[in-house]
Write a structure and sequence with these properties.
With about 190 residues, this protein is of the alpha+beta class. It contains 2 helices and 7 strands. About 10% of the residues are buried.
């Protein structure tokens, strides 16, 4: 039964395609007979010379339309948006800069892992709670409160942050990152 259904379905799908073929008599319609070629023009006779007549003036001339000119004074600009966002002021530019991964973390979430002291300047390595390590030097931006590494000493990293109180006053605060104290049982 299924074999018969498949064969019947195949014929139903192929029948419209076969019907359109030329060998069954269907398909394209016959082309109309070609039109007879246009008659050849007769050879031109020599033109007779006649005196030139002056053009007669037109009694009711049609008015020539003036070109349109657009004067935008006093009209709104059609290409300007209705709502214009305020332009950032120099104070707000700092808010629009992309934050580094260290600026997204609070200083209390970082652990000091290593300090390398060199004559050109010290370098420190800190690690976040996820185990990712970061190399910091003097001047590196660190912490959520616009912190910046101010100094790296033998076993401490000093970070200067701007702390804002409830009145909106900004006060600089120096925070320390120190090596974790080892817990040993005696």
């Amino acid at each position: 039964m299924t074999r018969l259904a498949i064969i019947l379905l195949a014929w139903l799908l192929l029948l419209p395609g076969i019907w359109g073929c030329d060998w069954l008599g269907g398909g394209q319609e016959p082309k109309p007979p070609a039109a007879p070629p246009p008659p050849k023009p007769k050879p031109a006779q020599p033109a007779k010379k006649t005196p030139a007549k002056a053009p007669e003036p037109v009694a009711n001339p049609t008015p020539v339309p003036q070109e349109y000119a657009y004067y935008p004074s006093g009209k709104p600009d059609p290409f300007r948006p209705f709502i214009v966002p305020p332009s950032p002021t120099p104070k707000d530019k700092k808010k629009f800069t992309a934050l580094t991964p260290l600026q997204k973390l609070d200083i209390s979430q970082l652990k000091l892992v290593a300090i390398i002291q060199r004559p050109g300047g010290s370098t420190a390595m800190v690690q976040d709670a996820g185990g990712r390590s970061y190399i910091i030097v003097k001047g590196t931006l660190l912490g959520r409160n616009d912190g910046q590494v101010s100094a790296i000493s033998g076993d401490t990293v000093f970070v200067k942050e701007i702390d804002t109180n409830f009145l909106g006053e900004k006060n600089p605060v120096i925070r320390k990152l120190e090596f974790p104290k080892s817990e040993t049982k005696e």
